[in-house]
Every structure is written in structure tokens, then in C-alpha cells.
Design brief:
The protein has 355 residues and is α/β, with parallel strands linked by helices. It contains 10 helices and 10 strands. The protein has 2 domains: 135 residues, 2-Layer Sandwich (Nucleotidyltransferase, domain 5); 178 residues, Nucleotidyltransferase, domain 5, CATH 3.30.420. A 5-stranded mixed sheet has the order 3-2-1-4-5. Helix 5 packs across helix 7. It is globular and about 60 Å long. The two termini are 31 Å apart.
Amino acid sequence: MDQAETVRTPSSWAVVGLDNGGTCNNATVLDATGQFLVSHLVENPSRVLDGPESAVEALAEAFTGILELTSTPLSLVRAVGLDTPGPASAHGVISSKGSTNFNQVSWRGFDIRGALEARLGLPVIYNNDANAAALYAHHRHFGTAALEHSSVAAIVGTGLGGGVVENGKVIRGAAGMAGELGHVQIPLHGVIEADQPVPRCNCGFEGDVEAIASLTGIRNNLLPYWLTRFPDHPLAAEPIDRAAKLLRGYGEKEDPLAIAVFTQQARAIGKLFTIAANFTDPSAYFLGGGVVEAAPHFRQWFLNTVRESTQLRDEQVEAATFAIVADLDMAGARGAAVAALDAVSSAGAVTVTRP
């Protein structure tokens, strides 16, 4: 051990968190005391559409850039946390069928965790993006008591991702696909209208949560139906892809069509959380993703509707909380960093605080 290591204080080492997305990477640094060294988004192009080699190099650039920004010497970095969209194995091998973000043939079965580890020469700890966000939400919410609690998180975006955290640890499952909450099929009574077609998911399932509570669900299932009820709505004149993306803005203005759509989404998530209550009985239910990256009044209305649609026993109501995922746009990178810190921390407990 060299002299620098012998005098190093507990807070003098750190881990890096890298959140890989379809267009951008987001990076952060977390020191050994649980302090994040950056309080804002730090992004660079992810270049995933250019193939694996370019994408791994872009992640390496994100790593180098965040160290420079935070004046963190490379010698102090113990590990790197990485998250990507799925589907992928628990060890970061992209599905043999590819995915929405990794759609070239070269991505199929590609070990992105191993490739980044070889490129950086540091241990890389992998999670999918929804699990990373769920892990950060859990540790941010419970702090020093994180290892004493469990939680379930639904992350609503293009699809619906999720995460199940038990005693402060993400539940991965045998194939690494635990927490794929979007593909849980739910009872549709009280969610859709009597004459509404059963929503279909891109995965082939009918009536799963993602078929309703996702941007894809809006585009493919909910909006086409509700536009038949509101044929004179301005969104009827828009291409369906654009109309789906514009819908949240109408929701913030309490537009009746938009409220009808988002009410169905909230009720679907409530059905999902009701199932979770009977499987894991978590201490907290978290909601994240684009649907709550909205005006505060809309975000609170949506969360309240989810809560009201979740059927809990009286004892569960007393014990559980409902909350928005903290620091929404940074949650993935921060959760990846928490996983990395936990992997190298002798104590195991991780307390994360705002910078």
C-alpha cells in the first residue's frame, strides 16, 4: 500500500454512476460518505445507434468527463455503476433479441458491462435503468434506515419499467428480469371502459400494465379510443405519435380527454401496486418517469389517483407511503452509483443526501 492510501480518509474514495440512454449518457460521482459531487445533469451523446463500440467509447468519455468536472482523481475511483435500458441479463448482457434502444444485430447478446469494465480497467456493477432509479428512490427516501425497508417502484416512460427493493437491495431474479412490472397482467375492471378494446402490449400480452401506463400504451391503445369519444379534439388533427407526446401538456391544463387517459394509467398502476401489496407488502410505493416530470399540480393529482386506486388493508395504509422518485432525471445515474458504492462498501449501508 502506498503512502497516499495509508492516509486516505473514508470520504477520499469514490464511485462513478453512468446512466446510459437512447440519446444521452448521464454521469455522477458519489463519495464514500454518500455525498454526490454533482447536483445537476451532466450529459453526453450515448451514440447507441452507432453500435456497441461507439457506445462503449461514449460511456468512457462520460466517465472521463465527470472525473474532470468534479476534480476526482482516477486513482480514487473504486468502481463504476452502469445502468442501461433492458431487456438484459443481471450481468449486463443485452437480450439476444435486442431491444428498442439496442436494435442493431451487433447489440444482440452484447456484454456491455464487461466491455466497459475492460475499457476502463475498473469493476463495473450493472443494473437496468428502472432498477437503478428504484434503488436510488429507496435509499434517498429511507436514508440510514434503507436496509430495514422494502419498496416497489413503477417508472413510466416509453414503456413501463420497475424495481423491487428488499432490505435495501434490488431483487434481480434468476434470469435478471425481476421487477419487470410493466408485463404484469392486471384486472381491467374499473380501469377501461365497457366498450374499450383490451389494450395490447408490444410484448404480445393483453392487459398488462405497460399496455396502458406508458407512452406506447397511450399511442397504441388509449388515445385512439378516446379520440373516438372526443372527435373534435385538437389532437385528432395530429399524427398519433406527436399527439401522444403532446398529451401530457393537455393534462397539465386539465383537458377532459387527457384526464380520461391519465386516469386510466393511474388506475392501472394502482392495480399493479395492489398486486405488489399482496406479494411483498412494501414500506413504500414510488412513481417515476415522464408522466410525473410535469407541473407540480398534475404530478400530485396523478400520484393521488394512483394511491386512491391501490387497495390496501388498514394496517398497510398505516405502514406504507407513496412518493415521487426524487431527482427524477438524475435518478438512474445516482442509483447506479449507489449500487457501486454498496458493492465496495464494507458496511453495506448507503445514506445518500442532496449536495
